[in-house]
Amino acid sequence: MFFPDRLTFRITSFTGTLYEPPGCWMQNTSVSQQQDRLWTLDYVLNLLVGHFLFASYTALFTIVPLFVIHQGGETWHIGIVIGSFGVSGLLIRPFGGRWVYTLGAKKIAFLGLAIFGIATILHIVAFNVWLIIPARMLQGVGLAIGPVATSTIVANLAPDRRRGEAMAHMGLAIGVASLYSPVLAFWLFSEFGFSVTFIYAGAASILGAVFALGISAARTDIPAVSGGSTAKIPLISRGALFPTFVFLSYTVSTAPVNSFLPLLAEDRELGNPGLYFSVYAFTQIFVMMFSGTMADRLGNARVIVPGLLIVGVGMFLLWGAQNQLIFLTAAVLAGTGFGFIQPAMQALTIARVPVRERSSAVATLQAAWDLGGSGGAFIIGPIAGVMGVAVTFGMAGGATVFGALGFIAGDRRSPPKSNAGGQSDEEFTGHPESNEKGD
Question: Are 224 and 283 in contact (CB under 8 A)?
């Protein structure tokens, strides 16, 4: 039977079953596939941007603590230097969410990576401990706004039903950087010294900025709401506060790892500290291959809570690690936990806010890195100086357990407010003019 293209015939049987002509079914399927498309050129370029930013950032994990000692610093100075990184980030990041909305995610991504790369190279001229701090604070500005932009791009490009998967792939891109960059940086330092290592790390971020230039602003920016006002974009997203407080319990665990892991490895003869980050990254990559899809299908809570508890066990193992086997087992557990936490936490945050508030929500969530990672370094620095660096890992393990319990209690009282007052995901993510086909 012939069905005109412009007409839709629906026949309902006496049993209530709905029938549609084959042509209409095919047309609807095509539209559905188009709306579910993820792998576009813009998405891939954004993955590369995130990858090279974190290749630069993770290269410093094994270098900055040693650089502080090399420049005449003491153990407690490490916490100050690491923590200074987050001071500027904490101040700038909320504005980063607003700038992404007003100036565009592409511009902010480029600016963030360029700033981070230049600041990294400036470490070369830091001739004493206190001169490292301005370079670290400038790095904090770049790392505050760059990931806000790249995460917002992912949220805007990803179909609603594949958001956890999309966030997981960004985590994979970052994880691959963590797999090789800390080890490569430590090798460069061992063979050629600090200057060459900082040049490598800075160049990686600048390369990411170049990839950012290829992203389409038209397809990745948040469209302005008719009659809306820029001033109404909040600096702090209320809908993101609950996920942020929970995520804070994880980021606290990164403070001792980023600050004192090289010293712990040296004191206990646990080998190259870069191996920890490589094992961590490899495990994270493996877990993220399925954790995003798990979060989409099972719900974020069933992924986040186990992730936090697994990280906690890993931190407790580091506290008592006396050989390399336990040291690397802790890395496996920490990588597994973060592999569960990261995509689910970002997807949960995006689901709780209107579309136009996504960049603000991402900025609010990522402020946990500044508060937990860098702010935590300020706190644990003096503690490590008095009680030893190992104790700080036990404290980190306790924080993640507390976060898991807090999530269980708070999730029952705090239902998500998905896209309240904003555009639907179909309105934004269905781009028929997209520049290439995807799956």
Answer: no
For residue range 297-350, list pLDDT tens digits in order: 888 888 999 999 999 999 999 898 889 898 999 999 999 999 999 888 988 888
Query: Average pLDDT in the 178-186 region?
Result: 88
The token pair that represents 411 in the structure block: 């999730």
Check if the beta carbon of residue 220 is closer than 8 Å to that of residue 42.
yes
Which of these, 123, 112, 93, 379, lies nearest to 237 by C-alpha position?
93
pLDDT, residue 221, reads 66
pLDDT at position 25, please?
40
Percent over 90 (pLDDT), the chain: 28
> Can you tell me the distance from the alpha carbon of 197 to that of 187, in angstroms, rounded to the nearest whole number?
9
**Count of residues for the chain?**
439
* Residues in CB range of 87: below 8 A, 6 or more apart: 137, 140, 370, 374
pLDDT for the residue numbered 7: 36
pTM above 0.90, yes or no: no
Bigger pLDDT: 67 or 1?
67
Domains of the chain: residue spans and CATH: 40-223+234-420 (1.20.1250.20)
Q: Give dist(CA 416, CA 425) in Å, integer.
A: 15
Residues facing residue 11 across a β-bridge: 19
